[in-house]
Amino acid sequence: MTMHPDLSPAGNALLARTLAYGKRADVAATFAVHNPADGSFIGDVADMGAPETQRAIDAAKAAFPAWAARTARERADILRAWFRLILENQEALAEILTLEQGKPRAEALGEIVFGANFIEWFAEEGKRLYGDIVPTHAPDKRCLVLKQPIGVVGAITPWNFPSSMITRKVSPALAAGCTIVVKPAEDTPLSAIALQLLAEEAGFPEGVMNIVTAKRAEAVAGVLTASPDVRKLSFTGSTRVGKILMRQCADTVKKLSLELGGNSPFIVFDDADLDAAVAGAMATKFRNAGQACVATNRIYVQSGVRAAFVEKLRAAMEDLPVGPGLEADTRIGPLINPAAVAKVQELVGDALGKGAEAVLGGTPHPRGGLFFAPTLLVDVRADMAIASTEIFGPVAAVYGFETEAEVIAAANDTPYGLAAFLWTRDIGRVFRVGEALEYGMVAVNETLTSNPATPFGGVKESGLGREGSRYGLEDFVEIKYLALGGI
What we know:
Blueprint: H1 9-22, E1 30-34, E2 41-46, H2 50-69, H3 72-88, H4 90-101, H5 105-125, E3 132-134, E4 142-149, E5 152-156, H6 164-176, E6 179-183, H7 189-202, E7 209-211, H8 217-226, E8 230-236, H9 239-249, E9 255-259, E10 264-268, H10 274-286, E11 296-302, H11 306-317, H12 338-353, E12 357-360, E13 375-378, E14 395-401, H13 404-412, E15 416-417, E16 419-423, H14 427-436, E17 441-444, E18 459-460, E19 463-464, H15 469-474, E20 477-484
Parallel strand pairs: 5-6, 5-8, 6-7, 8-9, 10-11, 10-16, 11-14, 13-14, 16-17
Antiparallel strand pairs: 1-2, 3-4, 4-20, 9-19, 12-13, 15-18
Helix pairs in contact: 1-4, 1-7, 2-8, 3-5, 3-6, 3-7, 4-5, 4-7, 5-6, 10-11
């Protein structure tokens, strides 16, 4: 393999190992992975299908009894070894992530550490899957409640956070005693393969964690959803695909975790700290070039501070460095593929055609390729397509509002309910608006700092279940009532 000039020696070494591992001797077909920053070829990986997926399920099923029988402490020791290996290789993992996904290197490094933290946290939390002894209903009987691993888990992960979305699903499953089959996104398989390499080094037994790379997700997903041996499916991606998977899982009545689309409102009241609100908007809108499910999608600013907020946001946006993620100063990387660029361009064009104004940007970036200029739109209205569509690009759309009741109604006028952001210094308003917003997560005067101890997930058509926290761990267990008589 040709050494990549922008990668460190450690990054090139891990990339070489990853590509070698990703070309399976038993799979003839391959597909190419490209760098979205310039379209350059990175390497080929195995293009697996239904037979390989079934073999992975069989391996996970065979490994499950012994893995579930291990003590929580034994499983935790291996998880912690994996955590340590990821931290030891964090720079190399971040370089691979940036190379195949495009986000700035600093963001990629943050994702690697963030994802590793889930492994450490669930290694410890797995020791606390406590059951219960229920007060008896008769003197000679006892009622016990056990929590047992659900079995083989299927996981389908997205391209926008190709490392942390894997660890956030895999670590609670393994900590609970489940085994797992993971289908990473076809745009970003290398991060998954590298994590699998390190997992094997950490000592996971064969079949406990399985990665299935494929160009066509349908070929893998169909087998996962149809298999009676897969007892749970965890998916992060679009609401459209989530609904398809939900239907497919009905025949085997699988347990489901779905983290789907969002349409996040970012609400700024006239008593807010505007500088803090602008900093929050920058963080929530432009992380990963806006390609995040919790990214700010609709910015609602009360009329009394709208002009000041827009000017401050414009000033913060106008010098955002756009370029390949491996360039040192880059803040905005490329979008993932041509379809993503076309979608953003169409949404912006629709808004401009219906009366919105582009204070900044509004077009693809002069660098060409998959780069889109950071864009600030004002005078945006609810009848524009951008108001009801997840943008997934570096476009900040500002709406005006007058009253609390008006903005609550506008923010809730969507089938989605993942995350919302609220900026105010009125403590009464914090509770009134925070409780009225129909979202699984509401951040007040902050940017929704996700961490392993807190539950992540949405309501309405943004999904089912939670990731992270003890609630996320319990999504991977079944409850068993053990009734004892003749005591």
